[in-house]
Design brief:
The structure holds 4 protein chains of 4 kinds. In chain A, 69% of the residues lie in helices and 0% in strands. The longest helix of chain A has 25 residues. Chain A is mostly helical. The N and C termini of chain A lie far apart (83 Å). The longest helix of chain B has 31 residues. By secondary structure, chain B is mostly helical. Chain B is built from 3 helices and no strands. The radius of gyration of chain B is 17 Å and the shape is elongated. Among the domains of chain C are: 142 residues, no CATH class; 223 residues, no CATH class; 42 residues; 93 residues, Sandwich (Immunoglobulin-like), CATH 2.60.40. The longest helix of chain C is centred in the last third of the chain and has 58 residues. Chain D is an all-alpha fold. In chain D, 76% of the residues lie in helices and 1% in strands. Chain D is built from 21 helices and 2 strands. In chain D, helix 17 runs antiparallel to helix 19. Classes of the chains: A mainly alpha, B mainly alpha, C alpha+beta, D mainly alpha. Chains C and D meet through strand 2, helix 5, helix 6, helix 25 and helix 26 of C and helix 7, helix 9, helix 10, helix 13 and helix 18 of D.
């Protein structure tokens, strides 16, 4: 198998560090370094902003950086999509919601249950340590496989998408439909509901009266109708 | 470029997202943390795709982007619904139900 | 065994009561009481007719071939398991059927009078019918799952009927207690079913019986050195102990007396509580393969018999005395089946059904007369006021005390003599038989005493009731007295079907043993001398018990003193002495015994059941709750933190190379060989093992092999440390062990 | 050909649901606020479910042999169809139980039924998935529908809060799922279909990163079935959701997720290299099962809110089913049908019990506490009997479906000696569970009502209750056929 991280023999402690860091000195490496540092920095900024608008903006920056990284991985189509869908569409959605609920936080982090939550973060750190231990190879891996010219282009990915993976493509449209309908259902104002509640209340009052319309419970009916009369 | 750089980067992104999700008070930022997690997955996917010279990963990443959009739409809608009810989107104030 | 089976519509027997119950639940509320009673009684009566017909006219011809069988449909069939919803009547289940339907019918009639003024009349009869149907399913079930359905059904009905007057909270609580205790038993029963299937591959009783031969899988050692048969028997007995109220699961039965009295008579005395005994007898073929399991059954039974009898001394509530007496008598039955004397256990079950149902119905009749009170301190002198009830009680009392010719005498004697004569326990456990026998004799003495105390306090002497109650005392209506008389006849003469005929040179006189032989194996062969000896001993013990009770309670409390004082003034001193004996008896025997009983009661009931089982679960829940509250605090982020921690824990434990809990070390001289593999399995993952024998931090042996050998220069204490590394995950596990070579060398 | 009509026909049940959902969406724009008009939308949904069920039955005979479609994306076999049946039952009963509840609570709108239908379609996709992509999309479709259904009771504070928690947790788990899929994709050399992954396992299992991917997928699925310690969302989401939705979620989502687990573990990760040893998933499942059974049942003991109690009990049931999954991993052939039977029986029982909970309350008085159930048996013996039946079935008392479900499951587990102790825990915890189920039964039968009963009564509710109760009884009386239908995997 080609250079797939985590090939057996990987060793965090015993790796030849200079060998492993060598590729960063190349031109490609510098680009990666800049993009990677940018992505990490921007994502950290995003997670630490008190003002939601600046958080969204740094997230957009993160996504741009990621798009650049995708391009270095020869995923040109995806790089474009990343900008279009994420930076373009999803982020606009976020901004809209920020407008609706615009609230600047007084405190960044709530202290309720903080030990538990910090423990959760440490659990994440532990996992990344284990992961790094197995993902970093013992020596610098060989070159990546050569790619055809069309790799990652709209044409070839589109071909896959509409031939091989037609079903998921169709299925994802169902998912989007669910999201659209659901988004409307959950977030639209409750006025229509309030009307329905008022109507239902009237219905109940009527059925209540009619259900007690029997001689055995005459006194109760009188009571109820007296109460109902009192309202009008 | 050796792919393990990308992988480590993706895991760091995942961790940053997770940390934000676990620690931040604002549900909106928590949602952004989740977006970061999904993007970390995407980065790993595309990295492997490049390493293997296989385009299935691209299709997968495409679908994940669509999925993230759907998830964001629903998540934001739920958030707005919560805001309408409570006038707050702070997660630590949403704890009616416990035990 | 099951070669030629005859079909017969056995399904009608349980079906009729079920139909009755369904009709009553659906329509009963709108009907008149007479109609309700007619439907209920017709249902159980019809069932009785079918059962009698089947038992007496059809069964004898096929008894040898395994009895009658009726397959309703194939219930489930998956892979190697196929269970039919089928019923089987052989001598054992047939006898039980007769008891259930006959006594059930009588109790239906009795209830007509007893429940006359109850507003929930139809519901009561519906439940009663439902119970009879379930009990019949239990008894007639051809396989363990079918039996289990009945088992659960009777539990449910019992629970419903205990809580029948649910407006009173203690009753509902009693119902709850009954259900919880029974579930503990059910747990054992279920495990027993699984184990049985595991070992034999079948759940049909006939197939289990033919499978259970010496040398089969059942006798092979399974776990902790005990055989499969032992574990099956033990777990099934846990189930039996729950249903049949044996130590330590007896606590629910006395509380169950909160229900209506006819229910106590039918369910909690005559039928349901004997289901455990029936089950052990049904599985006799498995039990005889494991003397140890039988010993447990017998010892628990005998201990319960004595223990409950002792508690019976100190009770002042009529039904409570009878309840403990039931527990005690069930102990007798278990002692019977536990000594591989299955026929005698079933025989006692049969006689007990009559006399105990009689006693309970008398209790109902008397409480009826006493305006609902069951306090025996306020009774007395009822012999004249309720003559019929008195007569019936007298017969049943003599029967339970074991006075010759009355039914209890024969059945109790068969159990006691069998306990001394049994050879099932072999040499290792030979002490079990005599121990059980002695416990039973003591229990029989106790039984005679407390039952006589009950009899004298209730019926003899002047009445101690207050004027108003006294005014109301009256004999019960004929609808209640009629069934009582029938039961008295059974209690008096019923024992004659099980006369130890061998004693008189006519083995065929023992009708019951002869009939049961096809179902539970031949009767235990008791030497004539033993038989005679214990007949004599039991009789003497019964008389002693009655005599003692008469001395203390004849004619009411302290009556002897007053009588003697009036007639012979010179004897006053002596009478006073008597009085002091009574006091002495109270101080030396009754009070300590009562204290002991109370203490035991507290230990078992309060500590074991309330504290450990109920409270312990509550405490555990509390602790767990406190732990989980740190996470389950209504805070989504803490939930996610728990998620992440869980994920990390999963990664942590799944990537750690496993090592054995202790290193395996073999020593010969100063050479040690160490094996660090887990359960003798080499790991497929290429782990590296580093062995550090001299504790200097530098491993002596490193490699992929999980075992190593090392020779020390000198004897003494050494610490061996083994570090196991998974090269791919870079995870390590460490284990160490101290060894003392000098000691090992010397021992050698 | 990429696809042809036969492939479309194979997924007709799913397509009918989706089509009917779209139809209701369209019809909604024409519907008035009148009750009859709203009810008509629900009946459309019911009709869709029945038509789908018909298509399913028509297909049943051909499904003896498993066939894959769409380049290995989806598979049709008996297991998938069996589960489809459960989902359809769940959707159908939800559509019967929900309208009166929605009307009473004042949020009756057509999109609700659309979400139920789309959710069921998503569940089917999970059950049929033979490819990580379809698994992911199916899980997301079903989950998004569930989030929305949870949060659609907009006036209710608990509903929106429950939806928020459910969504955040679910999205968090999806992050793990996506990441795990990426790792599996990379380490197997670009395989995403189950068959392809299984083919590459011998080589890929040398690479520890592969295990990371496998565990992450496992964790995400364990989240969906609410296995401890990934269960935290369940009580809050179940309590917050509108009651008929709770039934739908507890039954349908759980059954679908278990379907996904069964298939992925059996085919993609079924290689003994991945099952046994200490890195094997069998050990992990065993530990999860034990923790889930114990914690779920013990936590349920403490609850006074019946919805929350049943939520914890549903966690406990996930634990029992995991025992079956572990048994399947250890090579017990009868485990899989036992799990399927359990899911079927659990679907009916859960929907029934939540249906009764939805029935008993009204807008002013939800009656969610156990004390509120006092004396129901006096006022409404039929419903009380149905509820008692459901609760006894949940507790595993014969002759109900729940008893045989547990019986088959534990019997299958007993075939593997490693699982004895798990069965003991299972039986013990189900003994414990009887206690809290009975609290409700005791309240209904043995206590006097505190206040008069004013249930949300409707013909559709009654019909659904009768259907459900009959199904639960039928599963208990004739379990044989149901378990025989559970697929050809039964050991002979």
């Amino acid at each position: 198998m080609a250079d797939v991280a985590g090939t057996p023999g990987g060793n965090l402690g015993g790796a030849n560090v200079s060998d492993l860091l060598a590729p960063l000195a190349s031109g490609e490496g510098v680009v990666f370094l800049i993009l990677a540092l940018g992505v990490v920095a921007m994502s950290v900024v995003c997670m630490t902003r008190r003002n939601p608008v600046s958080a969204v903006m740094s997230l957009v920056a993160t996504f741009f950086g990621l798009a650049g990284l995708y391009a270095t991985l020869s995923a040109h189509f995806l790089a474009v999509l990343q900008v279009l869908v994420y930076a373009g569409a999803i982020m606009v959605l976020f901004i809209f919601v920020v407008m609706i609920v615009n609230r600047e936080e007084s405190t960044l982090v709530s202290l309720r249950g903080i030990p538990t939550r910090l423990l959760g973060v440490f659990a994440g750190v532990y996992m990344i340590r284990v992961f790094a231990g197995i993902a970093i190879p013992a020596q610098a891996p060989g070159p990546l496989p050569a790619l055809s010219d069309s790799f990652g282009t709209v044409a070839s990915v589109g071909d896959m998408l509409f031939r091989q993976d037609l079903f998921p493509f169709e299925a994802i449209s169902l998912l989007l439909l669910v999201a659209i309908v659901g988004g409307v259902v959950v977030s639209r104002s409750a006025r229509k509901e309030s009307d329905a509640v008022i109507a239902a209340d009237k219905r109940i009052a009527i059925s209540h009266l009619s259900s007690h319309d029997s001689p055995a419970e005459l006194s109760e009916v009188e009571e109820t109708s007296a109460a109902a009369g009192g309202h009008h | 470029m050796p792919t393990f750089y990308y992988l480590i980067l993706s895991f760091v992104l995942f961790l940053i997202g997770t940390t934000g999700v676990l620690l931040r008070r604002n549900a909106l930022v928590v949602l952004m943390g989740i977006e970061l997690q999904l993007n970390a997955g995407n980065l790993a996917m595309l990295t492997y795709s490049r390493a293997l010279g296989d385009e299935k990963g691209h299709v997968f990443a495409f679908l994940i982007i669509a999925l993230a959009a759907a998830e964001a739409a629903v998540g934001l809608a739920i958030l707005v619904g919560l805001f309408r009810n409570r006038q707050t989107i702070n997660l630590d104030e949403a704890n009616l139900m416990k035990r | 065994m099951n070669a030629s089976e005859t079909l017969f519509n056995l399904r009608l027997i349980p079906l009729l009561p079920f139909l009755g119950a369904a009709v009553l639940i659906l329509f009963g509320r709108r009907w008149k009481r007479e109609a309700v009673l007619t439907v209920a009684a017709a249902a159980i009566g019809g069932s009785a007719l079918v059962a009698f017909d089947a038992f007496f006219t059809r069964l004898p011809a096929v008894a040898e071939e395994g009895g009658l069988r009726d397959v309703v449909w194939t219930w489930m069939s998956t892979g190697n398991l196929s269970v039919d919803l089928a019923f089987r009547m052989d001598a054992l289940s047939g006898l039980l059927c007769l008891i259930i339907t006959f006594i059930g019918f009588l109790i239906h009639l009795y209830s007509a009078g007893y429940m006359e003024h109850d507003p929930d009349y139809p519901r009561f009869f519906a439940y009663l019918n439902l119970f009879c149907g379930s009990m019949l399913v239990l008894v007639l079930g051809d396989s363990m799952p079918v039996m289990f359905v009945g088992w659960e059904g009777v539990g449910l009905c019992s629970y419903l009927l205990i809580g029948f007057w649910y407006h009173e909270t203690p009753n509902a609580d009693a119902g709850k207690k009954a259900f919880i205790t029974n579930r503990i038993g059910d747990f054992g029963f279920l495990i027993g079913i699984f184990l049985t299937f595991q070992a034999t591959g079948t759940l049909r009783f006939s197939e289990i019986t033919s499978f259970a031969t010496a040398g089969s899988v059942l006798t092979a050692p399974a776990w902790l050195g005990m055989s499969n048969a032992f574990w099956i028997g033990t777990f099934l007995f846990i189930g039996a102990a729950g249903k049949s109220a044996q130590i330590p699961l007896y606590v629910w039965l006395p509380d169950a007396m909160a229900g209506p009295t006819p229910v106590s008579a039918l369910i909690h005395a005559a039928t349901m509580v004997t289901a455990g005994v029936y089950m052990v007898a049904r599985m006799h073929a498995v039990y005889v393969l494991s003397p140890a399991a039988l010993a447990i059954v017998a010892l628990v039974g005998a201990a319960t018999a004595l223990f409950a009898a002792v508690i019976g001394f100190a009770q002042n509530d009529f039904k409570k005395v009878l309840a403990y007496s039931t527990v005690s008598q069930l102990g007798f039955m278990f002692a019977g089946v536990g000594t591989a004397n299955f026929a005698s256990g079933v025989f006692h079950l049969y006689t007990h059904a009559f006399f105990k149902a009689g006693l309970f119905l008398c209790a109902g009749s008397i409480m009826h007369a006493m305006s609902g009170s069951g306090d025996i301190r306020k009774m007395g002198g009822l012999r004249k006021l309720t003559p019929w009830t008195h007569g019936v009680f007298l017969v049943c009392w003599l029967a339970i005390c074991g006075v010759p010719v009355f039914s209890g005498f024969f059945s109790k004697d068969a159990i006691v003599a069998g306990a001394f004569a049994t050879g099932i326990f072999g040499d290792d456990l030979s002490w079990v038989g005599p121990t059980v026998g002695v416990l039973l004799l003591l229990a029989a003495l106790g039984t005679a005493f407390y039952m006589s105390r009950l009899y004298f306090l209730v019926f003899s002497g002047p009445t101690r009731a207050d004027a108003q109650t006294q005014h109301h005392i009256h004999e019960s209506p004929p609808s209640m007295v009629g069934p009582l008389v029938v039961l008295a006849v059974g209690a008096g003469l019923g024992g004659l079907v099980g006369v130890p005929g061998g004693l008189f040179g006519h083995p065929e006189w023992n009708l019951l043993g002869h009939t049961l032989e096809t179902a539970v194996g031949p009767e235990l062969d008791v030497p004539h001398n033993t038989e005679l000896l214990f007949m004599a001993v039991s009789t003497v013990l019964a008389l002693i018990g009655i005599g003692l009770a008469y001395t203390f309670y004849g004619g009411g409390y302290r009556a002897p003193a007053q009588k003697f004082a009036a007639a012979f003034p010179g004897f006053v001193q002596l009478v006073r002495d008597k009085f002091r004996v009574d006091e002495l008896y109270g101080a030396v025997i009754i009070r300590p015994l009562r204290k002991f009983a109370l203490a035991l009661f507290r230990v078992v009931d309060r500590v074991l059941i309330d504290q450990i089982l109920v409270g312990g679960v509550a405490a555990l829940v509390d602790v767990l709750g406190r732990v989980s509250r740190a996470f389950q605090a209504g805070d989504a982020q803490r939930y996610m933190a728990a998620f992440a921690i869980g994920a990390a824990a999963l990664v942590f434990f799944a990537t750690r190379p496993t090592v054995p809990s202790t290193l395996k070390v073999e020593v010969s001289g100063t050479t040690v060989s160490v094996d660090a593999s887990r359960a003798g399995r080499a790991s497929p993952r290429g782990l590296t093992y580093a062995f550090d024998f001299d504790d200097d931090g530098r491993p002596e042996v490193v490699g992929l092999k999980s075992d190593a050998r090392y020779t020390y220069d000198q004897a003494g204490e050494h610490t061996i440390r083994v570090t196991v590394t998974d090269p791919r995950w870079h995870t390590q596990s460490k284990i160490k062990r101290k060894i003392d070579l000098s000691a090992a060398g010397e021992r050698k | 050909m990429i696809f042809d009509s036969s492939q479309i026909l194979a997924y007709l049940p799913m397509l009918i649901l989706i089509g009917m959902g779209c139809l209701i969406l369209l019809a909604e724009t024409f519907a008035t606020t009148a009750t009859a008009s709203r009810q008509g939308l629900a009946w459309l949904g019911v009709g869709g479910c029945i038509a789908s069920l018909g298509a399913l039955l028509a297909q049943w005979g051909d499904a003896g042999q498993a066939t894959t479609h769409f380049q290995g994306m989806l598979i049709v076999d008996r297991m998938a169809l069996y589960l489809d049946g459960a989902f359809l039952a769940a959707a159908l009963l939800t559509l019967l139980f929900a309208p009166p509840f929605l009307r009473e609570q004042g949020f009756e709108f057509g999109e609700f039924y659309v979400m139920v239908l789309f959710g069921a379609a998503g569940m089917m996709m999970v059950a049929h998935a033979a490819h990580l992509v379809t698994l992911l999309i199916g899980i997301e479709t079903m989950s998004l529908a569930a989030y929305i259904l949870t949060g659609c009771w907009r006036r209710n504070l608990r509903s929106s809060e429950g939806a928020m928690k459910y969504f955040l947790m679910g999205a968090f788990a999806t992050g793990f799922l996506v990441y795990g899929m990426a790792l599996v994709y990379g380490t197997t050399g670009g395989e995403l279909s189950y068959a392809g992954i299984a083919g590459k396992v011998p080589e890929a299992s040398k690479n520890p990163v592969f295990y990371f991917g496998e565990y992450f997928i496992l964790i995400a699925l364990a989240f969906k079935v609410a296995a401890v310690p990934f269960h935290m969302w369940a009580p809050d989401a179940y309590e917050g959701a509108p009651t008929p939705v709770t039934g739908f979620m507890a039954a349908g989502v759980k059954a679908a997720a278990f379907g996904g687990i069964l298939r992925i573990l059996d085919t993609a990760f079924g290689n003994p290299l991945l099952v046994f040893d200490f890195t094997g998933w069998a050990n992990i499942i065993v530990v999860l099962a034990a923790a889930t059974m114990i914690l779920g049942n013990l936590a349920a003991l403490r609850q006074d809110n019946i919805k929350r109690m049943l939520a914890y009990s549903s966690i406990g049931h996930a634990g029992y089913i995991l025992v079956g999954v572990a048994a399947m991993g250890l090579g017990v052939t009868t485990a899989k049908p036992a799990v399927l039977f359990y899911l079927m029986s659990y679907t009916f029982t859960t929907l029934g019990s939540f249906g009764v909970i939805a029935w008993i309350g009204n807008r002013r008085d939800e009656r969610l506490f156990i004390d509120d159930w006092a004396g129901v048996a006096q006022a409404r013996p039929g419903v009380a009997m149905a509820m008692a039946l459901f609760l006894l079935s949940l507790g595993g008392v014969p002759p109900t479906g729940g008893f045989f479900a547990k019986f088959f499951l534990f019997r299958a587990a007993m075939e593997s000696p490693q699982l004895y102790w798990l069965v003991v825990i299972g039986v013990l915890t189900s003994v414990v569970s009887i206690y809290y189920y009975l609290r409700v039964v005791i309240a209904m039968y043995f206590r006097d009502p505190l206040r008069p009963l004013e249930p949300t009564d409707a013909a559709s509710t009654r019909a659904a209750l009768i259907l459900t109760a009959m199904a639960v009884l039928l599963l208990g009386i004739l379990p044989g056929s149901f378990i025989e239908w559970a697929g050809p995997v039964i050991g002979k």
